[in-house]
Amino acid sequence: MADNELAVELVDVVKKFGDDADVLKGINLKVPKGKITVIIGFSGAGKSVMIKHILGLLKPDSGTVKIMGQDLSQLSEVELNEIRKKFGMLFQSAALFDDLTTLENVCFPIHEFKRKLKKAEVEKLAIQKLKVVGLEEAHYNKYPAALSGGMKKRVGLARALALEPDILLYDEPTTGLDPIITEVVDNLIVETHKHREGLTSIIISHDLPAAFKIGDEIAMLDAGKIRLAGPPKVFLESKDPFIQRFVFKAKEATE
Amino acid sequence: MIQQRLEKVPQGWTIHRGVESIGKKLISGVTEMGKMSVFLYDAMRWLPRKPYRFKEIIVQIEFVGNQSVFIIGLASLFTGMVFALQIYSGFHMVKSEALVGPSVALAMFRELGPVLTGLIVAGRAGAAISAQIGTMRVTEQIDALEVMGINPKQFLVMPRIIASIIAMPLLVGIFDFVGNIGAYFVSVKLLQIDAALYLAKIGVFARPRDVAQSLIKGAFFGLIFSLIGTYRGYNTENGALGVGKSTNETVVLSSILILVSDYFLSALIKMFIYEGF
Description:
- Chain A has 255 residues and is an alpha/beta fold.
- Helices cover 39% and strands 25% of the residues of chain A.
- Chain A has helices at 47-54, 77-84, 102-113, 119-132, 149-161, 179-195, 208-214, 232-237, 241-254; strands at 6-16, 22-32, 36-41, 62-67, 70-71, 87-90, 167-171, 200-205, 217-222, 225-230.
- Chain B has 277 residues and is mainly α.
- The chains are: A alpha/beta (255), B mainly alpha (277).
C-alpha cells in the first residue's frame, strides 16, 4: 500500500511507563484512507495507549507514528494541534462538557475554530450534525446529565463530526450499552462513514461480532503487538489457533 | 515491657528511619514544587498566544471574585467588629482608645485582610477549581479538548490563574474596607470613641504602602491557590475518589502555603517597600 493511501501508519512503536513492562512492543499498523478499520483487543492489550499515540497525546519511546504521511515526532506543539484538527473522536464516555447543553457541545468546536461565523451560522452547522446522527430537536437544550447513554454517544459523534474531520476515531463506542442500542450505534457508525466521502474511521473495540459486521479492515492487538491485520476474510482463513478461537467466539455471538 | 521492646530495636534504627522519612518528604516536596513551576510556565506561556482567552478570564473573575463578595463582606464585617471590641478593653486601660482605629486598620491592611481573604477564597474557589478540572480529567473532557486541538492549559488553567491574581486584590480591598467599617461602627457607635479622632488617627498611622502591601499579598495568595487548584485538578487520577483527594489537598496545601508564605512575603515587603532598597 502506497504512503499516500494511508491515513495512519505506526512503525515499530514501543512504549513503556516507568519500570513496568512494555505496553506497546513494536506495533506495526497501516490504516488505509476512506475505510473502516476496527482494532480489536482485549483489556490491557494496549488499545488506549495506542490511540493516544495516534493522536499525538503520547510520544513513543521508539518507532514512528505518521498521520497522512506526516511524522508526528517532527512536529511542533502548534503543528500537532493542527494535525489534531484532522481528527474527530467519540470517547467511550462521550466526554461531553457537563456545563454545556447538547447544542452548545456541538457548537463548541465550530465556534473555537471558525470564529468569524455568527452564532446563528454556528448553530445551523451544529444542528446539521445533530440531524446526521439522528438526535431529535427536543434534546438540543438538555444538559448531558439528562441524556441516556445512547443519546450521549450521538451527541459525542455529532461533536466529533463538527469540524468535518478526515479521520474519525471511536474508543469503545458500544461498551456499556444494551444490545439494541449497540446495534443502533454500529449502524450509526456505518451510516456516518457513508455520509462523508473519504472519511477514515478507526474503531477501537472488543466487540467481536461488530468487528466483522462493520469493519473493512480488522487489526488484532494482543499483548502490545499486532497479531494479525487485514480484511475479515484474512481472519476467517487464519490457521493461528488464537485467531481461530477469536473467530469462533465472534460467530458464536452472532448466531 | 516497653523497655524490653526498645532493647530489641537495632541501635540507630529509629533515627535512621526518621531521617529517611524526613528526607523523602523533603525530596518529594521539592520535586512537586518543581513540577508546579513547570506547570505554571506551561500555562502562562499561552497567555500572549492566539486565540486570546479574554472571555474565559472574565468568566473566571466573575466566579472567583464576584461570587465571593458576599462571604468576604460578611467575614470581614464581623472580623473588624470583634477585633475592635477585643482591643478596645486593652487600650481603654491605658486611656488610648483612639488607637483602636489605626490598630484595626493596620492589622486589616497588613495581615488580616490578605490572609483571611486568601484562606476563605482558597476554601471556596480553590476547591471548586480543583474539583471542576479534576472531574473534567477523569471524565475525559480534558482529553476531548486536546483531541480538538485546543490546549487545555490555555483554555482551562491560564484563565483561572490570571482571574485569581486579578480578583484577589479586589476582594482584599473589599475585606479591608468592610472590616474597617465594622470596626468603626463598634468603636464609634457602640463604644463611644470620638469619630473625628478615630479617623484622624487612622490617617496618621496607616499609609498607602500598607494598602499596597495588602493588595500585593492578595495577588500572591491568588496565585498560590489557583496554581495548586489547577495543578491538582489537572493531575487527578482514580475517578471520584481522586477528585475528592485533589480537592482536599488543594484546600490544605493552599492554606498552609498562604500562612507560610505570608511571613516571607511580609519580610520581603518590609525590606523593599518599608525600608527601601
